[in-house]
Amino acid sequence: MRLVLLGPPGAGKGTQGVLLAERYGIPQISTGDILRDHVQRGTRLGIQARSYMDRGEYVPDGVVVSMVMDRLEEPDADHGFILDGFPRTVAQAEALERALEETEEPLTAVLKFSVGGELAVRRLLGRYTCPTCGRTYHMEFKPPAEDEVCDVCGSTLERRADDDELTARRRLAVYREQASPLERFYAERDLLHQIDAEALPDEVVDRTMGVLEALP
């Protein structure tokens, strides 16, 4: 199973990626996590990426493609993967397509999670993540048992520096500008499947499984 997850910031791609990874036993590969790891470690690519991320803008194709292709070569991706946050542009999609053609393992499907703009902003503003175990929370939709403390490991939850309203709305605007050409690219290849993501995570994953199980 080789999947790409599309959708605006706040659509729940990360949550759905985790649930699907558990069901299929394949890695969820989040470009956001890869980028933040490079930034935190101060790598050359991380330094380049940071100025874009801090402004809520997307990182240039060349930087992102290099990071993702290296990740797909790791052993845990041999039997499939779930890409969350990549590709974002047609150029990235073409690069991925060429790489997968070389391995004769094309994408299984591209899933687009749809959500309204105001709900997306609400979801973005309430997000918190555990820096130790990576578990995600939302202060409105999925709060921890104890305020700002991880249920699993007890670490203090953190909020992304770019999860403020102005940056969130800018990210949504940038996504809308770039999304249509990318969606057309995958629709022309009969890979694109749209899923209504305005529901609880378990309901959305059930809708997603229905789509995947119906694939030929």
Structure description:
There is one protein chain. The chain has helices at residues 13-24, 31-41, 44-54, 61-72, 90-103, 117-125, 165-188, 201-213; strands at residues 2-6, 28-30, 81-84, 109-114, 127-129, 136-138, 192-196. By secondary structure, it is an alpha/beta fold. It is globular and about 45 Å long. Helix 1 (13-24) packs across helix 8, helix 4 (61-72) packs parallel to helix 5 and helix 6 (117-125) packs across helix 7 (165-188). It has a domain at 2-115 and 172-201: Rossmann fold. The chain has a five-stranded parallel beta sheet, sandwiched between helices. It has a two-stranded antiparallel sheet with strand order 5-6.
Numbering strands along the chain, what is their spatial order in the largest sheet?
A: 2-3-1-4-7
How many helices? The count is 8
For the terminal residues, how far apart are their CA atoms?
13 Å
State the total count of DSSP E strands.
7
Strand content: 5-15%
Low-confidence stretches: none
Counting helices, strands and paired strands, the structural category is alpha/beta
Briefly say what this structure is.
By secondary structure, this protein is an alpha/beta fold. It has helices at residues 13-24, 31-41, 44-54, 61-72, 90-103, 117-125, 165-188, 201-213, and strands at 2-6, 28-30, 81-84, 109-114, 127-129, 136-138, 192-196. It has a domain at 2-115 and 172-201: P-loop containing nucleotide triphosphate hydrolases (Rossmann fold, 3-Layer(aba) Sandwich), CATH 3.40.50.
